[in-house]
Amino acid sequence: MNNSVTNTARLLWAGLRALLVLTVVTGVIYPLAVTGVAQALFNDKANGSEIKSEGKVVGSSLIGQSYNLPLKKGEKTPAPDLKWFQGRPQNGLGSNSVNTQYKLILSGATNRSADNKDLIDWVTAAKAAVVKDNSVGGYTVKPADVPADAVTSSGSGLDPDISPEYADLQVHRIAEQNGLTATQVQKLVDDHTDGRTLGFIGEPRVNVLELNIALKELVAKS
């Protein structure tokens, strides 16, 4: 009887020591080590790839933002604020209908096939709007000039980047809306165009938030 109790106590103590050691190693030491390495070597990415303007965090380089006018009475969706570069459509975004205590925006794709009527209508309307909004001051945009990313949303609906072609297409509108020259705005686009990652991964891209911050600074100086 005594041997049985002793053996049980010894096993319990061994198990408790193992639990304590593993808790300290995996619950304290490992997370601290990973956090330390991340902060030391990848500080920007570890903190959410924050973008600052005038000393304040205004967003993340990984999450797209919308640039719209305030919603007017009778409107279902706000109109775009045409003085800013516009990102990709956000048709995949949804609202929280489960727990309505919180006002949330849910990211996601449209989940529409290429021959779906809703998707075709969205793309057709988006292309017409892009042509209309960006045909200004003797500069006419043709439907064939509109790139795919100007009329389609990304898989998450939160793509922060647009193609250089879509950014170029908006140059004349941005110049007219902000009292700048097309040359000034085009230089902004060129300066904020990133090439393929490592020279061969992905496509050239322009971060819309970073570009609009630079635009705001240029307008302030003009």
Key features of this structure:
222 residues, mainly alpha, 3-stranded antiparallel beta sheet, two-stranded antiparallel ribbon, 7 helices
Describe the structure.
With 222 residues, this protein is mostly helical. 45% of the residues lie in helices and 9% in strands. The protein has seven helices and seven strands; from the N terminus they run ααββββαβαααββα. The chain has helices at residues 2-41, 43-46, 117-134, 164-169, 171-178, 182-191, 208-221; strands at 50-53, 56-60, 94-95, 105-106, 161-162, 193-194, 205-207. It has a three-stranded antiparallel β-sheet with strand order 5-7-6. Strands 1-2 form a two-stranded antiparallel sheet. The chain has a two-stranded antiparallel ribbon with strand order 3-4. Helix 5 packs across helix 6. The longest helix has 40 residues, at 2-41. It is elongated.
Give a short overview.
The protein is mainly α. 45% of the residues lie in helices and 9% in strands. Helix 5 (171-178) crosses helix 6.
Question: What's the count of strands?
Answer: 7
Helical content (DSSP H or I, runs of 4+): 40-55%
Number of helical stretches of at least 4 residues: 7
Q: Globular, elongated, flat, extended or rod-shaped: what is the shape?
A: elongated
Kindly, what is the distance between the CA atoms of the first and last residues, rounded to a whole number of angstroms? 91 Å
Within the largest sheet, what's the order of strands?
Answer: 5-7-6
Oligomer: single chain
In terms of structural class, how would the helical and strand content be classed?
A: mainly alpha
Order of helices and strands, N to C?
A: HHEEEEHEHHHEEH
Mean of residue pLDDT? 88
Structural Rg: 26 Å
Largest sheet: 3 strands, antiparallel
* Beta-strand percent range: 5-15%
Residue stretches low in confidence (pLDDT < 50, at least 5 long) are none
